[in-house]
Specification:
This protein has about 450 residues and is of the alpha+beta class. It has helices at about 1-10, 15-25, 45-50, 65-75, 85-95, 95-110, 160-170, 175-185, 245-260, 315-340, 355-365, 395-410, 415, 425-435, 440-460; strands at about 35, 40-45, 110-120, 125-130, 140, 155-160, 215-230, 235-240, 265-280, 285-290, 300-305, 305, 310, 345, 385. The strands form five sheets. Strands 5, 6, 7, 8, 9 and 10 form a six-stranded antiparallel sheet that branches. A three-stranded antiparallel sheet has the order 4-3-11. It has a two-stranded antiparallel ribbon with strand order 1-2.
Length: about 450
């Protein structure tokens, strides 16, 4: 199972790489794409290519504002649950804050994952906890069902202190604690050196931050062989593990001797979620079936939109417009930088010997200054030139891209509360907002379906 988990992690690499790019664009690092440089004939970061042409790459981060607007609308529309149990979990876990950050992640990467567990984080108190899971530490098999009913393996990389590690997996047994201390004190376990996979060191799947202990938690759906029994003598039905078949056979032999009707049996396979926790070297340090009443893994996952198993988040839709806006603004800034601004054309033959060029420059920029010059009876006189810095229509293109980014994203002035015409009544304005959110309806309803699934798992935890 450890090898399967590692392969599943590698299969999710494209999802993590795309998420990293979308995250850079959201938070302003928008010139880091690797593109082909025709001058050096190699791939380089885009900002280096722009800087080598003498321009300064400028970022006008529109994506961040779009994300903040949607998260703000979600906060404004959110309501507290009516169920008292849910309300207590909401308060304890600060779920409105967690859900807002989860929505932000969902807009950026198209991946939203939460973990619901029931454990003791305070001495002697068993409580339900909800945690956001970083998609950078998460892996899942390729799925196509938007409901997530075809998940077969799911898990995450977890980093914890040695104290928490011993508390969670030491089992209160001295031998188990000493075994864990040996595993995590062995230098070969901090990397792939000595790993059962034999790959070179430096891989994030196996290495944890300094001072932390890495565990790989894997949940897999497996078929558990069971014996379905019908006791015709006592008139009841029950199930037993397949390992107890000999016990049933022995009981039937006794009944045959006593003249009682036997226990009728039939083999059956029961799907069961099994949790396994591994050390970085592949050592199994814990294994157990799902303890939750719902019998499933502790995660709720939503991948958007999952057409043919593909993930295409909200941010991806507006990246091209954002790139075009940055390029246009950079071009306008460059044009303004190289255009003439108060340049003085002073004929050399008109200059008198008593004044230096520095004196002339000082007098020209001084209010009320006087510059004597030699008149040669010609038309050549000192002339000042100021260029308008024509941008060849780039400013209009920027306006066009700003309108396109609103059309593509669905986040327009009505949602943001901008450009409200005077005399517009509250009902009409509310209708405008509702019409404007149609483009975002699918995205928001998908996210709400995740929260509804989360709430159901909380009630069953």
């Amino acid at each position: 199972m450890f090898n399967t988990a590692y392969k599943t992690w590698l299969d999710c690499q494209q999802m993590r790489s795309r998420r990293e790019r979308f995250k850079k664009y959201t938070y302003g690092r928008q010139w880091d794409d690797i593109v082909y440089d025709p001058v050096s004939c190699r791939n380089r970061p885009e900002h280096e290519i722009v800087e080598n042409t003498g321009r300064s790459p400028i970022t006008n981060n529109v994506i961040r504002q779009l994300v903040k607007t949607i998260v703000g609308k979600f906060r404004n529309d959110s309501v507290s649950p009516e169920d008292e149990r849910l309300l207590e979990v909401y308060r304890r876990n600060l779920l409105p804050e967690l859900d807002s950050r989860l929505l932000e992640e969902f807009l950026i990467s198209g991946v939203a994952v939460q973990r619901i567990t029931r454990e003791c984080r305070r001495p002697g108190i068993m409580e339900t906890f909800v945690d956001n899971v970083n998609p950078a530490d998460f892996f899942i098999n390729a799925i196509r069902d938007p409901r997530g009913w075809d998940v077969e393996i799911i898990g995450e990389l977890r980093d914890m202190s040695i104290g928490e590690l011993l508390m969670r997996y030491g089992k209160g047994d001295r031998d188990s604690i000493d075994r864990l201390r040996h595993i995590y004190s062995d230098p070969s376990n901090s990397s792939l050196n000595g790993s059962i996979l034999g790959n070179p060191s430096g891989h994030r799947f196996f290495e944890s931050p300094t001072g932390r202990c890495r565990v790989i938690e894997v949940w897999s759906l497996e078929m558990d062989e069971r014996i379905r029994c019908h006791d015709t003598h006592l008139h009841r039905c029950f199930e037993l593990p397949a390992s107890q078949s000999e016990r049933v056979d022995a009981e039937n032999k006794k009944r045959l001797t006593n003249g009682k009707s036997p226990i009728r049996t039939r083999m059956a396979n029961k799907p069961t979620w099994i949790c396994r926790v591994y050390a970085p070297d592949g050592t199994l340090i814990n294994e157990h079936p799902s303890f939750a009443p719902h019998g499933e893994h502790p995660y709720v996952v939503k991948l958007y939109p999952l057409t043919d198993g593909e993930i295409h988040p909200f941010v991806e839709d507006v990246i091209d417009q954002q790139r075009h806006i940055n390029r246009l603004i950079t071009m306008i800034d460059h044009i303004m930088g190289v255009s003439a601004k108060g340049v003085l054309l002073f004929p050399t033959e008109a200059k008198i010997d008593q004044l230096s060029w520095g004196d002339i420059s000082h007098q020209w920029s001084t209010c009320g200054g006087i510059i004597p010059y030699r008149s040669l009876g010609s038309s050549k006189q000192p002339t000042q030139i100021t260029s308008g810095g024509l941008d060849a229509g780039a400013s209009k293109l920027v306006e066009l891209q700003m309108k396109l980014i609103q059309e593509v994203s669905g986040v327009n002035d009505a949602i943001s509360g901008k450009n409200i015409a005077s005399g517009v009544g509250a009902d009409r304005y509310q209708q405008q907002v509702q019409n404007a959110t149609v483009a975002l309806l699918d995205l928001m309803e998908t996210f709400k379906s995740l929260l509804n699934l989360r709430d159901r798992k909380i009630l069953l935890a």
